[in-house]
C-alpha cells in the first residue's frame, strides 16, 4: 500500500495522527496530497511533513489518488462527497475516518461508488500503539482487505468489527484517552510535587497504569475482586459520582451519533 498514491481530504488532527504513525513506522506513502479549506492548517502540516503536497481548497486533487482518506467531521461529508464523486477511479479505495455516516450513506452520497472502508482511528496510532477498528463494504475484495489490514497494522491493532459497533468504538476507544489523560497528568504533577523526578513520576505512572489495566482485564478475577485488592480508596466516596458523569456525558453523545 505504501506504493499507492494517497490523498487526505481534511488536514486536521486525525490526519496528523495517521501521518505521525506512518512516519514512525518508516512506512510513509511515497506520494501524498492533503487538501483542506484552511491554508494555515496545511502549512503547519507541510512544515512537519515536508514530503507531502498540499492542495488548499482542492479536494478533487486529493480524491484522484489510489487510496483516499476522508478526515472530515460528519456534517461536512455529504457536500464534499458530492464534489469529488466523479474524481474517483473504479479501483480507488476510500477510507472514511468519521463516525455516524454509514457505508450505505457514504455510497449514496458518492452516486453508488462502494469501494469504501470505515475506520475509527485512535490517538495512540501516532506512536504505532493505536486500536483502530474497521468495517469494510462488500465491494472490498479479500486481497484488498488483507492489504489494508497490513497497511493499517503499522498504526497498531486493526480489528475488523461489525459496522453497527463503530459508534461505540468512537465513544469509548477513540475518545477514551481524553477520559484518562488529564487524570494521569495530574498524578504525575503530584508525584513531582512530592519529590519524584519527572522521569521517576512518568515511569512509575506508566507502569502502574499498564499493570492496573492488565489486572482488571487479564487476571481472571471479577472487577469487584480486582477493586478489592487495595483496601484504601482515597476517591472511594466519589466513585458513584464519577460513574454517573461517564453515563450522563457519554450516553447522549452515543445516541446522537447513532440516531442523528
Describe the overall structure.
It is a single chain. The chain has 260 residues and is an alpha/beta fold. It folds into two domains: 160 residues, 3-Layer(aba) Sandwich (Rossmann fold); 84 residues, ProC C-terminal domain-like fold (Orthogonal Bundle). It has eleven helices and nine strands. The strands form two sheets. The protein has a seven-stranded mixed beta sheet with strand order 3-2-1-4-5-6-8, with helices on both faces. Strands 7-9 form a two-stranded parallel sheet. Helix 2 links the parallel strand 2 and strand 3.
What structural class is derived from the secondary structure elements?
A: alpha/beta
Strand and helix order: EHEHEHEHEHEEEHEHHHHH
Poorly predicted runs: none
CATH class of the largest domain: Alpha Beta
> What is the terminal separation in angstroms?
34 Å
| CATH fold descriptor of the largest domain | Rossmann fold
- Computed over alpha carbons, the radius of gyration is 21 Å
The CATH architecture designation of the largest domain is 3-Layer(aba) Sandwich
Number of helices: 11
Largest sheet descriptor: 7 strands, mixed
Order of neighbouring strands in the sheet with most strands: 3-2-1-4-5-6-8
How many structural domains?
2
Question: How does the overall form come out from the CA principal axes?
Answer: globular
**How large is the share of residues in beta strands?**
5-15%
* Helix percentage range: 40-55%
Average pLDDT over all residues:
96
Superfamily (CATH H level) name of the largest domain: NAD(P)-binding Rossmann-like Domain
Question: How many strand segments?
Answer: 9
